[in-house]
Write a structure and sequence with these properties.
The protein has helices at residues 2-17, 85-88, 90-96, 384-387; strands at 42-46, 49-54, 58-62, 69-72, 105-108, 114-121, 128-135, 143-151, 176-179, 185-189, 196-202, 207-208, 216-219, 226-234, 239-246, 256-262, 298-301, 304-306, 318-331, 336-344, 353-361, 367-369, 389-395, 405-406, 408-412, 417-420, 424-428, 433-438, 441-452, 457-466, 471-476. By secondary structure, it is mainly beta. An eight-stranded antiparallel β-barrel has the order 23-25-26-27-28-29-30-31. It has a six-stranded mixed sheet with strand order 22-21-20-19-18-24, with no helix packed on it. A hairpin with a 7-residue loop joins strand 7 (128-135) and strand 8 (143-151). The protein is globular and about 70 Å long. The protein starts with a helix and ends with a strand. The relative contact order is 0.11.
Length: 480
């Protein structure tokens, strides 16, 4: 009933305003969202079903990226993924001085079996172990193949034969295993400590080739708060995109997603300003020095809150707190990119859920994230009349902060100017693409008609990124 009333309002508004049927937005069928909690979700498609695997042996599945079903959660006897993990991976837990797993990754290799790259860490130090387990079925049970990397050594040499140095060497957690365009297998990994590293993996054994040590460093050092690496190749642009989470994962940690790119899977990676990511680290002797790293990487999403306006239809506040530790997926059949991450929410403490948003490449070949969660929408050609009007604007900035970026109101005027709380100009550069200039900074992105949960209706949105690596989002205001 609520949806029918709102659609009636829209029809009346268009009739009064003289808007033709050709100017109406595509009606997205109301989605049925079902939420799950999987921290650090890593996605894989198996048997036409999407699975995400996360910390503490949590997993979930979905056939549409909208409605999710919890499969497992918690390291305990009977977890279907690894029913006897504390016994099966005893060597790992003994080394890590822990009884739980951190962020894993699952990949299907040439033998048709599924390989889980698991890891455990003490947490207050980089004393960690990473191993691999294998299963015939995506939902397990997984059988241990042994430890492949260790970190945090005290009385023995590190993986490269030198004494372990936490400011230089990696914390062996947060793996992502992927094939490059030459069908070579890699694993990128790391969190805080000495930074993010990448290793070559033998696809026949599922383990690193020998004599690599920890592999090649891509960025980070001196305990910089950078973690959760994930690499996605784009046929469209010819780049490998390295997604990273900066900041702390807690509700007050300022977690945010960033990206850099390279023509090679093992780098070097550069951000949208041309900065070499190998320089992204704190100074020697520093600890969690966010000011030293905040300029690196294009920041795609951080803390935000869309505020309700006085004349808006049935709206509430909408926002995320510390969104991060993502994976990505490219659907070859539809040409859609997706980003999958966990997030916390305003005034809900540390409770978290996964979110899936559609992602697009802007005209400069940089990913931009749609403002609303995925609801089945497909990008289309939009007329000027469809995209102009009043919008709530979020500027994600480049900072690492617990503060929520709050929306302000702007108006995309018919003459191409922008008025309201921020002034500038805008121009459609194609059927879906747009350039938005605010305070003399140009952001390049796209328009997208999306379902909005707060008003249970369709609205126009935009997402764009500047050369400085700053993302902006807009959501059209639907009024009575």
């Amino acid at each position: 009933m609520r949806k029918l009333i709102l659609l009636g309002f829209l029809t009346l508004i268009m009739l009064i305003g003289g808007c033709s049927s050709e100017e109406t937005l595509e009606n997205i069928e109301e989605p049925i969202f079902k939420n799950v909690s999987v921290h650090d979700p890593s996605i894989i498609l198996a048997n036409d079903t999407f699975y995400v695997f996360g910390s503490h042996l949590a997993s979930a599945k979905s056939d549409n990226l909208i409605s999710w079903e919890q499969v497992s959660d918690g390291v305990h006897p009977g977890n279907p993924l690894i029913p006897n993990a504390l016994e099966e991976m005893k060597e790992t837990f003994d080394w890590a001085e822990s009884e739980t797993f951190w962020a894993p990754d699952v990949i299907q290799l040439g033998d048709g079996r599924y390989y889980m790259y698991y890891n455990s860490s003490r947490g207050d130090s980089p004393r960690s172990a990473m191993g691999v387990a294998v299963a015939d079925d995506i939902e397990g049970p997984y059988k241990d193949l042994g430890i492949i990397l260790k970190s945090g050594m005290i009385e023995e040499p590190s993986e490269d034969g030198t004494p372990y140095d936490a400011t230089v060497h990696p914390n062996v957690v947060d793996p992502h295993v992927f094939f490059d365009q030459d069908n070579k297998l890699w694993m990128v990994y790391g969190s805080y400590s000495g930074g993010i590293y990448i290793l070559k993996i033998d696809p026949d054994t599922a383990k690193p080739y020998p004599k690599q040590g920890y592999g090649k460093k891509l960025l980070g050092a001196n305990h910089s708060r950078i973690e959760g690496p994930y690499i996605q190749y784009s046929q469209e642009t010819g780049y490998y995109y390295l997604f990273l989470s900066f900041g702390g994962l807690a509700a007050d940690g300022g977690y945010n997603l960033r990206v850099a790119r390279s023509k090679n899977p093992d780098g070097p990676y550069y951000d949208s300003e041309g900065n070499d990511m190998i320089d992204a680290h704190g100074p020697r002797g520093s600890f969690f020095e966010d000011n030293a790293i905040k300029r690196y990487g294009a920041k795609l999403i951080g803390n935000f809150m869309f505020l309700r306006t006085e004349n808006e239809v049935l709206s509430g506040t909408d926002g995320y707190v510390s969104p991060g530790h993502n994976s990505t997926f490219y659907d070859e059949d539809t040409g859609k990119y997706f980003v999958i991450f966990h997030t916390r929410f305003p005034n809900r403490g540390e409770q978290h859920e996964i979110r899936v948003h559609q992602m697009f490449m802007n005209e400069d070949g940089w990913p931009v994230i749609a403002p609303n969660r995925y609801a089945g929408e497909t990008i289309d050609a939009y007329s000027k009349k469809q995209v102009m009007g009043e919008f709530k604007l979020i500027n994600h900035g480049k900072d690492i902060s617990k503060v929520n970026k709050k929306s302000v109101i702007i108006q995309l005027e018919k003459d191409g100017s922008i008025s309201g709380n921020v002034s500038g100009n805008w121009k459609q550069t194609g059927d879906t693409t747009v350039n938005i200039t605010l305070n003399n900074i140009t952001y390049k992105g796209i328009f997208l008609n999306q379902w909005d949960e707060t008003i249970a209706n369709n609205i126009m949105t935009f997402t764009a990124l500047s050369d400085e690596g700053i993302a902006i989002w807009g959501k059209q205001v639907l009024t009575e």
